[in-house]
Design goal:
Layout (H helix, E strand, L loop, with lengths): L29 H7 L5 H9 L7 H6 L1 E7 L2 E6 L14 H17 L6 E12 L10 E10 L3 E9 L5 E13 L3
Antiparallel strand pairs: 1-2, 2-4, 3-6, 4-5, 5-6
Length: 181
Amino acid sequence: MSETQQSDAPANAHEAWGEPRTRELTWYDPLQIAAQAPRMSGIEFLQRMRDGVIPPPPIAAHFGLDIDEVSEGSVTFRCTPDESGFNPIGTIHGGVLCTLLDTVCGCAMQSVLPQGKGYTSVEIKVNYLKAVRGGGGPLTAEGTVVKAGSRVGFTEATVRDATGALVATASSTLLIFDITG
């Protein structure tokens, strides 16, 4: 709060907020994970991650992301957002959905890349179609490749709630580049 702002809240207002919550995250060295990528095709890398041979990246721990399916040009992830991803009105923050969509868009592209190639997002356009309320169960996101060029790729993605209702869509442009070292 700035010096010019005044608060009407009493000094002990936080007591009415209830007990504070905490969340512990565990992840593995992301640079060691990334060092494995140039040694295999994108689909092999994702399959090994899905199968637990390669650990997931730290972002997966932050958002509870799990790979369900991987095939050439398509991936499916599952995510069960917890209350740490709520916005002030009690729905899942759009940034959580955007992160999920960006993840499946990128991993779909990775699934078609040969050994020694990587990608990064250039842009993503997200359409939020329905509020996602807390406690609604897992979200399922599917990313598919529209076109994979030699330097630029295009993907699309959807997110569905536990009832199967479509809650968000995205289209993404990705830069494809050498990751050999």
